[in-house]
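Standup notes
- HV: blocked on the assembly model, inputs below
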Amino acid sequence: MADPVSPSDTRRLMMTSALPYANGPIHIGHIAGAYLPGDIRARFERLSGTDVLWVCGSDEHGAAITLRAKNDGVTPREIVDHYHADMQAAFHGLDMSFDHYSRTSSSKHHQIAQDFFTTLLKKGSFEVKTDAQFYDPEASQFLADRYITGTCPKCEAPGAFGDQCEKCGSALSPKELIDPTSTLSGATPVLKDTTLWYLPMGNHEDWLKEYIEQGTFNGQPHHDAQIWKAHVTGQCRSWIEGGLQSRAMTRDLDWGVPVPVEGADGKVLYVWLDAPIGYITATMEWAEANGKDWKDWWQSDQTDLVHYIGKDNIVFHCLIFPILLREHGDYILPTNVPANAFMNLEGDKISTSRNWAVWVTEYLNDFPEKSDELRYVLASIMPEQKDSEFTWTDYRERVNNELADVLGNFINRVLVLTNKYYDGVAPAFDPHSATEAEHAVLEALRIAPARVGNFIRRNRFRDALQEAMGVARLGNKYMTEQEPWKVQKTDPKRTEAIMHCCIQVAANCSILLEPFIPRTASKLQEALGIEGAIWNTATPEIIPAGRVLTQLPILFEKIDESIVEAQLLKLHASRATEPESEIPPSKPEMTFEDFQKLDLRVGEVTACERVPKADKLLQLTIQTGLDERTVLSGIAEHFAPEEVVGRRVTLLVNLAPRKIRGIESQGMVLMAESADGSLRFVTPEEGTQPGDIIS
Ligand SMILES: [Zn+2]
C-alpha cells in the first residue's frame, strides 16, 4: 500500500494534470486548479529523488471545439493549432515543468485510443444500442454534449449541457435535460435513431464504492482513502448512491478519434474516453524519446498514479477512467485524485465567455519577469478544499508584505551584511558562541524539510507554502531581534554566529521555496553557490565557512496601488456586456395558418426623416411595389436618416395602420436585434425587387 508521507524512493510516481481544452486561453483559475499543484509536487519530488514523471497535453477533440470552429467560421484544426501553441506559451511563461506535453489530435494518440477501445470492445465492456437520440432538424446533426442545453434535472439551473451541469457538477445525458434546445440553431431537437456504444456504469458501482471509500481494490488495500480530499470522496459517493447511468462512449461527429468498427463512419470516440488515454499516449512519447518503458508507469504495482484536476473533472477521473482502466485489465488505478475547487475573481466566477478572467499570457505581458509573484499568490490561496478568490488588492498585499518585506528584505540584508563585514565570504561558526536563539533557529531548520514535504505529499500546498515561508519569517525576525549591525561594533565573534545562522536560513529558503517560486530560488542558489540542490540537503549546515556569496539585485519590486487600479479598470472594461445565455427563449408555437396571414414584401426606402419631438422614431417612405407608403420605425438612435435612404428592407405590409405622433404608420420594417441591443436591417439579398413576396 502506498504511503504518501514516507520517502517514496522505492516507488515510482506517475503524475498527470488535466489536459486543457484547446478552445480558449489559459487563465489563473486553470493554473490554480490543475497545473500549479502538479508543478509544485513534481518539483518537490524531483528534489527528493523520487522517480517521478509528470505529463500533460492539449485536449483537442469534442463538441465544444467543433462548435467554436463553426461559430468562428474556421476549421477545428485551426482552432486546436492556435490554442495548443497559446496554452504552451502560458505554461512556459509560468515555468510549468512538465516532463512531456502532448496533444490528442496526433495520429499516435488516435492509434492508442483506438487500440484501447478495441480491447474493451473484445472484452464486452460496452453495450451497443440503437436508439433515439436528440437531433437538430435544422442543422442536420445529432446533438450530444455541448450541442444541447437545457435546465439541469438535478439542481434546476438553466444552461446545463448535454454532458454536464457546470453549476452543480452533475454528469448528465442529453435526455435528462429539461426543455432541451439545440445550441446550433436554437431549435427544439427531435428524436432520431442512431447506434452508440455505452459504458454500463451501473455494473461497476460496488467495486467503485469500495475503491473510493475504503481505498481497497480486489479485496486488497490499494491506497490511503483518508488522504483523499473529502469533497472528492463526497461527490463520488453521492453519484454512486444516486445510481450510475450508462454513458455513451461514442458520438456522431466528424472531429475526433474515429470509432474503430466496420461501418461506424461518422462516429468518433467520446472526448472523455479519449482524453484520459492522452495521459498514456504522452507517457509513451516521453518513454520513446528517453529510452524508457512506458509500462513501468502505467502497468506496475510499484507505481502510484495521481491525477491533478479541477472539481468539474472528478466524475471522469474517479469513476469513468477507473472503469476503463479496470476493464482493460493491464493498468493500475489512480492512487489519488486531489481535485481542486474553483478560483473566483473579484467577487465573481471566472468566465471565458464573459471575459472575466486574468489571462496568463496577458499577465506575463503586463508583469514581465514576475511569474514567481503570480505562482506565489495562487499557491497561497489555492482552492484546495473549497472555492477561493483572487483579488488584485490581495495580490499586491501578498507581494509587498510577504515576498518583498519578508523574503526579499531578509535575503537582501544577509547578502549586504556578509559583503560588508566579510567581503562576501561566509564566516566561521564557533558553536560556543551560540545562544538559545541560534539553537532555536538551527533546530527549526532541521525539521523544516520534513514538515514542508509532508504537506506537499498530502497535497496541502497552502500549508506547505506557509511552512516554507515560516522559515523566511523566522530568519527575518531573528535577524531583526539580534541586530548584528549593532553587535558587530562590540562583539564581532558573536556577529559571526548570527550571520552564520542567517546565511543557513537563506540557503534553506532557496531549497524549501523552490517548488513554489523556482526562478527566485534559482537566483538565490546561484548567489549562495548551491549546486544541484536536493531536498534532504536542506539542513542547518548547508553553506560552509569560506564560501563566497555574490550580491543580488532586489528580488521583489513592490506593487504600487496604481497598478492594482489599472488591472481592475482593464478587467471591468473588457467584461463582455451580456452573458451568452441572454438569448430570449422562443415564443409559443403558432400554426401555419397564422403564418400565412403575414404579408411580407421587399421594399425600398425612397426617403427618410426624423420625427419631430420623438427621439427614437424615423419616418420612412417606402416603395412596396404596390404603392409608396409611410412607415414609422423606432430606429432613430441606431441610424441617421441618410443611412437608411436607398436600402432594401423586409416589410410587413398588412399590419393594421397605427397613428403615432399624428403620423399614420402603414406597416412595419423588420429588424434583427442582437443580445447587446444593437439593431440591424433584415436586408433581402441582392437582386430582389420592391414588391417581391417573402414567404
Ligand atoms: Zn445542476
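- HV (later): unblocked. Residues 152, 154-155, 157, 160, 165, 167-168, 170 surround zinc ion (CB under 6 Å). The CA atoms of residues 413 and 424 lie 12 Å apart.
- Next: hand off to the docking folks.
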